[in-house]
Amino acid sequence: MDIKQIRAKKSMKLLFLLLTALVIGAASATTYSYLYMNGTVTVGTQQLVWIKDGTTISGSTVAMSFSVQPAIPQWFNQSLYLKNVDGSSHNATISVTATTLGSDFTYANMYAYNANSSALLHTFNLKTTNTYAFSSLASNYAYLINFGINATASASGSYTFNVQVVYQ
């Protein structure tokens, strides 16, 4: 072996060691930081419930169905309650969010009463979208919900309305 070949082999080894050292140095110089999150979801009981015809409705939706006659006012009383079954008070906003009742009805109202005193708290016109905020629904307190509906003489078919309760 001649000297040039030995020098070339040593140079290659030295170059390989230098490149390896650079790679290890670059990897060691990179700093990593970590953030973690631990989450918990607790499923409790429903805080506000619908009570229809004396039965507590499971879930968030109650279905109300009314059959009325043209031009004859009809009242539907004592059939629906919105009750706070939680241990603390809740603010609630009740909204008529959609309706097809419109001009085919002389009136179509939902009445919210204090279930304890029978005092009328608010009348919701089911013919138009509207909202009313109740400042506080106390623990074990309920709203009695009654309905008054009068279809016009020319009304026929099926109509719908949606009511939404948002509470915190």
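[next item in queue]
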Amino acid sequence: MSKPDDKEKIATYEGFLHDINLYLTCGDNGKIRKLVNNADGWSYAHRQGNGELSDEEQQNLIDSKFWKLREVNK
């Protein structure tokens, strides 16, 4: 899993916020719920494993969740 650079992070975070606006405007609560769940998964990935994961494993988990932030169709 590749680690996002700052430019990729900014583009993803901005796109994520635009996605929330789009689905609010369309009234698609299911997709808003999925985006919020994605954000929760990304946040939890930072503390998941209770220190039992190596730094590399932890970062791979975080990166994996980051790249899925905007997924709503799965």
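[queue empty]
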